[in-house]
């Protein structure tokens, strides 16, 4: 048996036995193990309602996921406020997320509180996290290095896997669609007097499309994708003061692709984590956490092994939340060790980062304040201090004015530092400073918000032709990014309406790059999305329209990609209280477009699914 599979089976076995050995029960109302409905934890690392949260946050829950019927996580995120996506050729292919115009590795991605992503390339494999495994997503926009350290320069995306609300919740789904697509999932979850548990499995496969149309296409045929995933988790209350939880998520994929010497890859995304909480009373909570994540890739050419890139992260943390008067003081310490191994020999293949942070939250009548500061100490580049200040004023019962400032940083990746013949070990962190002002309204007819911001990034890492005999990465670039985001949710003539719009000016601001004033690559200046849904008894109808303006695929702005608009339709029918039939048709008008030059995108796609969920 493959060594990776053996390790995984042991982890799953241990986690599966947890709710059996310890009677299942509800977790506390705060932290990752909470019932997260109406609560945001990512913006403050503490539980706050979305109305209390001062940061700019988008929340996508399981109800919305099932209503929209997205084929993948990137499709679910497409067109959201502040988000641009670049995909390399359809389902399962590498997908980059740009948040508020920052780089794709300037976004911190968490799964159930555990940091994921590749320490070599810098990105997280969002395409390998099936939507059937997701309970909820929180997207926090803006600089949050003062709470999370490196990578949270443009924002934080946290994904929570499926969890129960009732005593016993089984579910199952089977689907078939275009391009030879098959999907299936099944799970069971529940919570009782002293604990909770959840087990969810999913599988999908597709023949795909021809991913690459360029001259370097080594294999001009369909490029398929398949993915099998499993999440197992449980929690237990040990008494009035103690509770804990443990979680395992693993996704194994097989991906075929074009445009390079390798043509296939076996990938693994794995997250193992747990928390132990102690509550001394209403004014003190102590949380200890530990976890690991892995991003593994074995690459093949014509069936023969070609290369391997494996990233493993070990994480631990301690956080104290202390109520002082009307305020909340949070003190915390994070420890992280990144390690890479594979067929490429790096000069250094591991590093440790330690970070200590403090945060103060308080309401003063109609005004609210959130202030935080953090110090990170990294074995490679030394220390870095970041901070943020957020302020809110409810000047009427329906309107809130917000303002914030913050600094952030991004540590260089192992590829940028140590890749043989290319890396530059003298690199320092990329740094930023941001400011934002916003206005939000909540009324009987719905809610809306508008936010304007500016981010300046210094010491951006870019290719320097004068570095060494062949050039390499160097801290020579700068960027100035300005943007406006608008969001509205309401009901019009019985139809649920949710709409977002983003105006972005992501400008290269450095003479050293040779392209001052140019637009940063793969960011559209205009993007948006509109979702419309309505129920007619047992029948539900919905449509989504998303679009983006033109963008460029290189810093010189010589490779232009045209703008596009996509229309998706969906229909559902309740066959019985436990069974529902759904049909979705994406890209109804068969639009041809690209989000990365030479990489094709799917045309018109359909998917028919049958879902079973008792008492849904």
Mean pLDDT: 90
N- to C-terminal distance: 39 Å
Question: Unreliable runs, pLDDT <50, ≥5 residues?
Answer: 5-35
Tell me the major beta sheet. Answer: 22 strands, antiparallel, barrel
Morphology call: globular
Tally of DSSP helical segments: 5
Estimate percent helicity. Answer: under 10%
C-alpha Rg (nearest Å): 23 Å
Number of strands: 33
What does it look like?
By secondary structure, the protein is mainly beta. 6% of the residues lie in helices and 57% in strands. It has 5 helices and 33 strands. The protein has helices at residues 3-21, 62-68, 73-77, 145-148, 414-418; strands at residues 39-40, 48-49, 56-61, 83-87, 95-99, 107-111, 114-115, 134-141, 155-161, 169-177, 181-191, 195-209, 223-237, 242-256, 264-281, 284-301, 304-324, 327-342, 350-364, 367-378, 382-393, 399-410, 430-443, 446-464, 472-492, 495-508, 526-536, 539-548, 551-552, 560-561, 564-576, 579-586, 605-612. The strands form 5 sheets. It has a 22-stranded antiparallel barrel. Strands 3-8-9-6-7 form a 5-stranded mixed beta sheet. A hairpin with a 2-residue loop joins strand 16 (284-301) and strand 17. The longest helix is centred in the N-terminal third of the chain and has 19 residues, at 3-21.
